[in-house]
Amino acid sequence: MLRICNMKFLLFILPPIFFATIIQAQQGGIIFYTNPPSCEMSIDTMKVYPRKHYILDSGHYELKVSKEYYLTETFDIDIISDSSQVFRVSLEQDPMYIQYLDDLSNYKRKKFARIGLPILFSTGVSILYFIGNRKNYNALDELKFDVLGAKTAYETNVFSDEYDQLKADFDRLKGDYDKKVNYTNTFKIGGAVLIAGGVFFIVKGIIKSSKDERPSYNAELSRLSILPYYNFDLKNTGINIAVNF
């Protein structure tokens, strides 16, 4: 009786183990490594991730690897029973994206040359203009007091033996004061002209830059393949446009 029970138990437990062994033998493992690391991947309709180990039924699969700003690649892979394999993928950066970065850099350099440089020039001139004016006015105030003092000195000593010397000192100081006034006026006019010129170039640069089209990157356009063709029968030419998935 015990032997019969053991036989029934074996008949009950052995078939699942047998079939599980067969199923396991019909499966294989695979792990993916991608460059760049954070790619979007799918095997047929199943989404997979890099650096993770997957157990799949043996057979033929289609692997799709994509990432923004990179060219999408599609591979045919075979899962081999009772084995594990490593699949490495390196995506190529989209040439249109590389061109976009180059165009964007040129666009920014041109914009800086048209607007940024005039702003820096005008700002620098304005700072120097303000500092220079302060110095000139301070010097004028000092000379003005000296001139007034010299004038008072020679006018109150008309009959003094030092009158001629005091009058000469006044004339010298008055001449220095007049020169400083002329220099200050010239400095003010020159600075105002330079600042106005900078503002003019800023406005001009803004107007020109507004007409420049900012470069853009079209991911959908990068998927198109445009190939020329020639029809020998009709003797005409044209282009073929294909979409790369």
Describe, in plain words, how this protein is organized in 3D.
The structure is a single chain. The protein is of the alpha+beta class. The protein has two domains: 27-93, Immunoglobulin-like (Sandwich), CATH 2.60.40; 96-218. It contains four helices and nine strands, in the order αβββββββαααββ. Helix 2 runs antiparallel to helix 3.
What is the element layout, followed by pairings?
Layout (H helix, E strand, L loop, with lengths): L1 H24 L1 E9 L4 E4 L2 E3 L4 E5 L1 E8 L6 E7 L4 E7 L4 H61 L7 H49 L7 H4 L1 E8 L4 E8 L2
Parallel strand pairs: 1-7
Antiparallel strand pairs: 1-4, 2-3, 2-5, 5-6, 8-9
Helix pairs in contact: 2-3
Using brief descriptors, characterize the structure shown.
245 residues; alpha+beta; Immunoglobulin-like; 4-stranded antiparallel β-sheet; 3-stranded mixed β-sheet; 56% helix; rod-shaped; disordered N terminus; transmembrane helix; membrane; transmembrane; PEGA domain-containing protein
Brief characterization of the structure:
The protein is α+β, with helices and mostly antiparallel strands and 245 residues long.
List SSEs in N-to-C order: HEEEEEEEHHHEE
Describe the biggest sheet?
Answer: 4 strands, antiparallel
Q: Can you give the mean pLDDT?
A: 78
Low-confidence stretches: 1-12, 14-24, 238-245
Which descriptor suits the 3D outline? rod-shaped
Q: Whole-number radius of gyration?
A: 44 Å
- Number of helices, counting only DSSP H or I runs of 4 residues or more: 4
Strands, count? 9
Helix content: 55-70%
Distance between the termini: 67 Å
Q: Could you give the order of strands across the largest sheet?
A: 3-2-5-6
Estimate the strand proportion: 15-25%
Keywords: Membrane, Transmembrane, Transmembrane helix
Protein name: PEGA domain-containing protein
